Fold:
Amino acid sequence: TQLLEQSPQFLSIQEGENLTVYCNSSSVFSSLQWYRQEPGEGPVLLVTVVTGGEVKKLKRLTFQFGDARKDSSLHITAAQPGDTGLYLCAGDPTSGSRLTFGEGTQLTVNP
Amino acid sequence: DADVTQTPRNRITKTGKRIMLECSQTKGHDRMYWYRQDPGLGLRLIYYSFDVKDINKGEISDGYSVSRQAQAKFSLSLESAIPNQTALYFCATSGDGWWHFGDGTRLSIL
Structure:
């Protein structure tokens, strides 16, 4: 089983602050995804990164895939209370087959 | 209507009972999955299916079985439920590089 480790597990910050969540593995993934999950709902896909070194931006969120395709990061600029939620990274080892998930980072942004 | 619909949304039952969780999708995707989520463990794959005639075990399939009744329907069964199967269960589909998850079934086994 290919493991993905997320850090930190919990993060509580004030509105307007910046933050970074990390997702690391000793295994190579063909692609890596980031999800956001709110209570009572399923995970919602935010982005997929597929190329080593790739950087994608989604408004105030910046996603990066490591050069060796073993790690990824999610950076949020000027966090807002609406960013509160569980952020999950998930890796696909063989391109389109099945996902291995990290444990998740619970983010709370206080107004 | 939701792309991936799970029923029931909540279920409380007793040890030893047989339980079926159902999933239907309107995405037209061939690939469907069942995951369970436990606090601090993320989501773990139970079973997956790449088409109607294809069923594969995931990393935690013991105590579970599945049935792919049609392209749009994928059900998960617990033949004899035990308390450590208490969890949040998610059905998902994938296709065209995109994944869709249902809103989950919260299952409690007493």
Q: What stands out?
A: Chain B has no helices and eleven strands. The two ends of chain B are 32 Å apart (CA to CA).
